[in-house]
Amino acid sequence: MTDDVLTADQIQAVRDRVAELMPGVRADLEALVRIPSVSAASFDQAQVARSAEAVAELLRAEGLEVDIVTEGGRPAVIGHVDGPEGAPTVTLYAHHDVQPPGEDADWDSAPFEPVERDGRLYGRGAADDKAGVLAHVAALRAHRGALPVGVTVFVEGEEESGSPSLPAILERHGDRLAADAIVIADSGNWAIGTPALTTTLRGGLRVIIRVETLDHSVHSGMFGGAAPDAVTALVKLLATLHDDAGDVAVAGLDEGVAADLDYDEARFRAESGLLDGVELIGSGSILSRLWTKPSITTIGIDATSIEKASNTLAAKAAAKISVRLAPSQDPARAFELVRAHLEEHAPWGARVTVELTEKGAGFAADADGPLYDQARSSFRDAWGVEPVDMGVGGSIPFISDFAARFPEAAIIVTGVEDPDTRAHGANESLHLEEFARVCEAEAIFLARLGAQAAAAATAH
Ligand code: BES
Ligand code: MN
């Protein structure tokens, strides 16, 4: 492009600078991964405080004015540095909390001891989302002493717990987060070597279903055959949530249209680890099933364990389900539909109670305009190929809060994840070459926004 806001030499200079910085960025990422900052309540919250402090220190070292804020939840870090006169402001988001590690035995190396194998850095949070934090730090370092734009960094400490105090943080400190563009580095790219802008995310609900059939547990020989046990009733009820094809059977939920990308069954099978012979569920394109249609997963069951099993009819049983929602779906309405379905399908008159524990809205970006153009150009600069628009099936519920609070801001969802990241699972990892591209793209994006504003100012 001849009318580009940056010359090829300027772009290359930013890339070279980031390449020099990557060893230090990686060392700082490893130090963050060593802090087991699990935001779930049953884990040591002193570690989340430590990780907030470590993030604050990284930002202070880049000359930002930094505060750690807590509004009844986990500590968030807010840092700010002004840009040149007239330059836009960019808010950079990531989260410093992580998911629980699960069973150590499922990991090939200790979850909080980062190690490299075959070009990937393994560890809980190595990708989701401590690499997001370091991508922002890398972009700041690349422009040390000559930042082209004003920058606010917002690193939350409870995203993996559904951001419960984020509305309160926005209420109290929201003015400090206002920006022309908000970069949310908590998603990923389409494939190794193919960058993507994430333009849709699903919303979600988490729901506990409790089933009771008896006043107390009784002998299965004396009463079995005429009285229903609660576990079987619960399983029958769960089975009504899908039809025979595996589509969600709750009536009335929204469905959207997925971004148009090629994704065949073979790739899905390889990436998901689906066992040979196990069928895919649902109908429509695979990407619509993953990105824009609802899905329901049973994520936990409370029932007598096999170890403790006796010949007894269980009086009660419970399950927790995770419901993913179309990007456009109102979560409160979705919960009413799920609740009505469960109550109507209670088998054998079993008592069913339905409790909503968490809800979050999805997101669909109107990804057009000059800021999105510069974001796409930055991806092209870093990877050397055209970026694609993609959806993700996961959720980042607070994005809709940001969109409501800052309706004029361009919300640009980026990230470090790739199809083999295994975020939330055992052996989570970061592809180090792709990570360097993410850092370059973000540094170039800041340069592009600064140059675009400067060009606009001289044109007037
Ligand atoms: N980084 C993920 C969101 C994501 C998932 C992006 C998959 C790209 C692909 C985020 O940290 C996350 O896991 N969110 C939770 C939200 C929940 C705790 C409310 C999720 O999707 O389960
Ligand atoms: Mn995340």
What would you note in describing this structure?
- With 460 residues, the chain is α+β, with helices and mostly antiparallel strands.
- It has 2 domains: 3-201 and 362-459, Zn peptidases (Aminopeptidase, 3-Layer(aba) Sandwich), CATH 3.40.630.10; 203-256 and 292-359, Alpha-Beta Plaits (2-Layer Sandwich), CATH 3.30.70.360.
- Helices cover 34% and strands 23% of the residues.
- The chain is built from 12 helices and 18 strands.
- It has a 6-stranded mixed sheet.
- The longest helix has 28 residues, at 432-459.
- It is elongated and about 85 Å long.
- Bound molecules: ligand BES and manganese (II) ion.
Question: Summary?
Answer:
The protein is built from 12 helices and 18 strands. By secondary structure, the chain is α+β, with helices and mostly antiparallel strands.
Strand order in the largest sheet = 1-2-6-3-7-17
Number of helices: 12
Beta-strand content bin: 15-25%
The CATH architecture of the largest domain is 3-Layer(aba) Sandwich
Provide the fold topology.
Layout lengths: L7 H26 L11 H17 L3 E5 L6 E6 L7 E7 L19 E3 L2 E3 L7 H13 L7 E7 L9 H8 L7 E8 L7 E6 L1 E10 L5 E2 H4 L6 H10 L25 H8 L13 H6 L3 E8 L9 E2 L2 E10 L5 H14 L6 E10 L2 E2 L5 H14 L4 E5 L5 H8 L4 E8 L11 E3 H28 L1
Parallel strand pairs: 3-6, 3-7, 7-17, 8-16
Antiparallel strand pairs: 1-2, 2-6, 4-5, 5-18, 8-15, 9-13, 9-14, 10-12, 11-13
Helix pairs in contact: 1-3, 1-12, 3-12, 10-12
The structure holds ligand BES and manganese (II) ion.
Manganese (II) ion (MN) binds next to loops.
